[in-house]
Amino acid sequence: MSSTKMQAADTAPPDPTLFQYTNALKQFISPTTILPEKATGPVPTNKWWGNLLSLNAAGRLDPVYPSPYAVFIDNVAATIACSYLYDSMHQGPINVNGAISYYYFPRSSNLIFSCQAPSVQFSVEDWDDLTVQVSLTSGSSAFLRSVMALGQAYMTIQHGDVPICLSSESGIAAVDGQPFGDGFLYHGQVDVGKFVVTLHNGQRWLVCWSSPAKGQALTFTCDKQVLKSGAHFNGIVQAAIVASDDALQILEQYAGGYVHRGVVTCDTVHGFQYHWETRRAAVQSQQPTKASPPVLHFVLEHHKSILTFHSQAVVPALTLHSHTRGPMTAYLIDSASGNIWDFAFSEQDEQNVERCAQFHAPRDPSVQDIVENRLVDHLQDEINTAATWTLPPGYYFKGKALQKYGSLCLLAAKLASYKEFQTQVAPLAATALSKLKQLLDTANEFPLCYDVVYKGLITSEVFVKHDVNVEFGNAVYNDHHYHYGYFITAAAMMYHLDPSYMTKNTRLCAWIETLVRDVMSASIADAYFPRFRHFDWFLGHGLSHGVTSVVDGKDEESTSEEINCWYGIALWAAVTGNTRYVLLLHQSVYIFVIGVFVGRESKIDQSKHMNQRANQIHSSNNSTSN
């Protein structure tokens, strides 16, 4: 399921003479919930499900948001709650700009699955590009296990030797129209069954189950307001919100199928693919020779514009809403097409990105523009002080300064290419480039080190000052694509202006190459950095906040700085001849532009939100204003 064209060339250990290896981050935080065998490899640090990697200050797990659902896992009570919160959106007051001040979705556990067994432990068992597998286990045989993915149509939970136990914070009002309470009794069969649970908040949920067992009765009773099966169950239980009677028919039709794994591949610059691995609940009545029915899965608006097929959209349309990213439409994952979703970009989208992924602007300024705006004078003022160019402390501000100086070098080189300004500007260009080389080669007060806990490059300042908040949380993997993106871009500019310097200073080249690998390793085989640390191929943009828990879910935080990082890596790929990264970064920028800047992502009334903070892609659960 992997694509050779997405593999990073370098999967060797980071150079220990450049980056000292350390496990000292364990004194502050570590991925305590993952299985020991998974802890030996790279651990994702900025995924939508990242809240599950460690406990919060209260010793609990914060929510995750596999839209259109929200999932609340209680590691103490041994429960997994699935909620559809769109109808409970709370909007703040209108601010002076005429926009709502904020909106959020209050936490509410609509449908709760309980693992009624002793000494239950929560674990993150596995993950890939598009899914995460979690479990609540007791001993060797009793468990609840779930594979979650953005866009999942059902909350699918495998039960192992535990009763089916369902409850709700709102309370269950009825099951298939039968009032729920003391004396309630529902008769079913263990191999396959379904009913509709109506909650006191008015929501309806379809609950389906299936098991390899057959010929056995399965009864449900009311046990202290819990809908509970009379016997232990071994099989699959699925739940889905029922938005309408038409939706109920569709959900019943496709029940039993679910996504088990998902990997992204990219073979050309013109598109990318999701390779889904699907499973179907084992049902004795299903004919083994019959082709497996398609699996229902939701897409975001930007997916619809670049999917290469339209026949796999469900008819009649089934639409639910994500928390902050607009409507989601049900499509099919079909074994007839190899369980592959193929995405292709329009020629116009490709051309627009290609024009901007260059060192210089798409259009050169005219001589008249240069003269009227006194560009040479301003450039001279900046570069005449090059001897006093300094770098502020810290990787974030130092990187920003370096890219500023690199941009001045590019501008000087561009103006020196005009015969009208060559004599005046050429010496300035040489002075600026010389100073940039000197600054790029300056030693850092707190060198980056290689963290063997999560596998990545972090500042050593955290260990000197005993504070994970230094450098905006760099040591806990917050905003690496912003911090390192400035260094990568500045170095690419320098090498573009003087390619020979790459061989003259190989240590700097190796240092930058490792930064690129930290933020955007593409190799499944890379044992030293996680694949796609920041970029989410379903959402179409990166995520921030690192390994710290965020109750509202991860968010992008700064679209401009993310674009700058991908831009910088594209430039770096150009100067180093790394065609793999050129291809990869074009894909990232294309879907980022389509999903974010072109505005195809959300059909929320933008007039209500447009005056809010513009540079933050909303978190999974809320949006705030300035």
TrEMBL record:
Pfam families: Glyco_hydro81C, Glyco_hydro_81. It comes from the Eukaryota. GO terms for molecular function: endo-1,3(4)-beta-glucanase activity; glucan endo-1,3-beta-D-glucosidase activity. GO terms for biological process: cell wall organization; polysaccharide catabolic process. The keyword Hydrolase applies. InterPro entries: Endo-beta-glucanase, GH81_C, GH81_N. It catalyses: Hydrolysis of (1->3)-beta-D-glucosidic linkages in (1->3)-beta-D-glucans. It is an enzyme of class 3 (hydrolase). Keywords: Carbohydrate metabolism, Cell wall biogenesis/degradation, Glycosidase, Hydrolase, Polysaccharide degradation. Residues 38-335 form the Glycosyl hydrolase family 81 N-terminal domain. Its EC number is 3.2.1.39. Belongs to the glycosyl hydrolase 81 family. This is glucan endo-1,3-beta-D-glucosidase. The lineage of its organism: Eukaryota, Sar, Stramenopiles, Oomycota, Saprolegniomycetes.
